[in-house]
Write a structure and sequence with these properties.
By secondary structure, this protein is an alpha/beta fold. Helices cover 23% and strands 24% of the residues. It contains seven helices and 17 strands. Strands 1-17-16-15-4-7-8 form a seven-stranded mixed beta sheet. Helix 6 (209-224) packs parallel to helix 7 (251-258). The relative contact order is 0.18.
Amino acid sequence: MTRTLKLQLAMGSQNTFVNAERNPLLSFGVITDVQYADIPDGHSFRGVPRYYRHSILVLQRAVQNWNKCQKLKFVINFGDIVDGFCPKDQSYNAVQKVVNEFDKFSGHVYHMIGNHCLYNLPRHKLLPLLKIPAPDRHAYYDFSPIPEYRFVVLDGYDISAIGWPEDHPNTEKALKFLSEKNPNSEKNSPEGLVNLDRRFLKFNGAVGEGQLEWLDRVLQDATNLNQKVVVCCHLPLDPGSSSKEALLWNYDEVMNVIHRYNCVKVCLGGHDHKGGHSIDSHGVHHRVLEAALECPPGTDAFGYIDVFDNRLSLFGTDRMDSTDMVFTP
């Protein structure tokens, strides 16, 4: 059974992690949806305040805390590094500015792409800035920081109406899919869509067939090596962990691949700014992280995760909830 740990301590504008007695196999930092832009504060389409200039200060405090922690092997940024409202003549420099802040971390930073990244820059410009290994401009990859664990980073905008050239087959597939699934002229509107169909919005995307086959091979290899797997994707993969409007278009197909194996223990994501946590029917934890963008001045949303043989323990700061994700036997 999992429990939420109330371990969020604030010291003025600076927040601190909680230290507990434990010997993790490894530890890594997490943050999502920084969505920096040098523009006045605004609101989401639902009226939630967004603090575009403050978000980079959240990131700066995160990096300071991660470096002070001195035990973190790497950091994972779960996407949306800059906001879609960033003036397009500033996009490249804005992304570079945020990447430079991440680069002040003493270890390696792994990035993934989100919809707001793609509003600003096409893949051929974005992926090199984020140092994402990108054969054919796809942005999925895996890495194994210790023999016991493998991390899989999915490209949730593999099939997408944003980011690819207009005449690219993946763009054409996405537009055809949206025309069949969403009758609204405004494809970011869920009006009239019911229940899980509300995910069929232009700001979401899908994992393509080639990536699904790659995922299957990676999980088979991890199983053969007796590795536990953590899957990372900007878009959430379980309806219990997020709003329906934030889900990956084909989350069900991705989870069908994942559920063929017993190696995947946790899926981590962003995109749905309020965050969430669920455990699916196969005992896989789904933790959607709270967004840095929606932190009022003086507050934060970032954390680090301790990795054990039988659980992942997220220690959040301030608006990011701490969560103990104990694996189902």
